[in-house]
Specification:
Strand content: 15-25%
Oligomer: single chain
Number of strands: 4
Distance between the termini: 11 Å
Largest sheet: 4 strands, mixed
Number of helices: 4
Structural class: alpha+beta
Radius of gyration: 12 Å
CATH superfamily: Glutaredoxin
CATH class: Alpha Beta
Shape: globular
Strand order of the largest sheet: 2-1-3-4
């Protein structure tokens, strides 16, 4: 299973929803990068993703996007493929 990274904040319902979905899909560990604790990480996130909102999720080197993007991948049946390293 590829590494899953998620830029997040402490009080973010979409971050919590993304984490729940990923755990339900069998992701045991999510590397969480808290942008509310370190402004340089927020700048890093915006430079890499060109987005300002959290969560921003990566599966391996692929930027999936936010929670809505993650849920859409799941709805399309593509999330399981990505998590299996097939996408």
């Amino acid at each position: 299973m590829p590494t899953v990274r998620m830029y997040s904040t402490a009080m973010c319902p979409f971050c919590s929803a993304a984490e729940r979905l990923l755990k339900a899909k069998g992701v045991a560990e999510i590397e969480k990068i808290r942008v509310d604790l370190d402004a340089s990480r927020l700048q890093e996130m915006m430079a890499v993703t060109r987005r300002r909102t959290v969560p921003q999720i990566f599966i391996g080197d692929l930027h999936v996007g936010g929670f809505d993007d993650l849920a859409a991948l799941d709805h399309e049946g593509r999330l399981d493929e990505l998590l299996a390293g097939e996408g």
